[in-house]
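Section 5.1 Outputs to date
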Amino acid sequence: MKTKHLLFLFIAVVAFGCAGQSVKASADAGADAYDSTMQANGYDELKLFKTPTGHITVTLQVNGKPCVLLVDTGGGATLIDISKREKYRLEAIAMREYAAGIGSMSPLVRTSALVRVGEHEFRDDSLFLMDIGYLNAEFKKVRSRQVDGVLGTDFLERHCAIIDYSRSKIYLK
């Protein structure tokens, strides 16, 4: 079964590689060999955590502090809860556009931060600040882990994300 799993990842990465890039891995390689191959191809491996609600989170560093983000493969933007603005020392840059979220429409507020993914650190100017208190309120009701923000498709695409659900890992470039 593991061989099929690794073969699928190999095919998926080659067929849907990021910006024409591909990862070459042996279909019969073990998990450690696969992780080494991913690292050799410039990917950082991060642990995913599943909440009691079935949501998946990952922890990145934002301006030098751990930041728990809900992984949202259908979310169009990566954002940090505006209530965490001081914690992460984020500057708010108001925009004249609005964002539609679940049950709300709010003004877009852009921010920039120094983000660390594994061994790589970079400036990300495409983050947003938004009130996600409603989300954490729902998580609190079911004693689920609170999140600092949402990791959206924009970030996942830019960093050629590969999510390995069976091993609870995400690889980012």
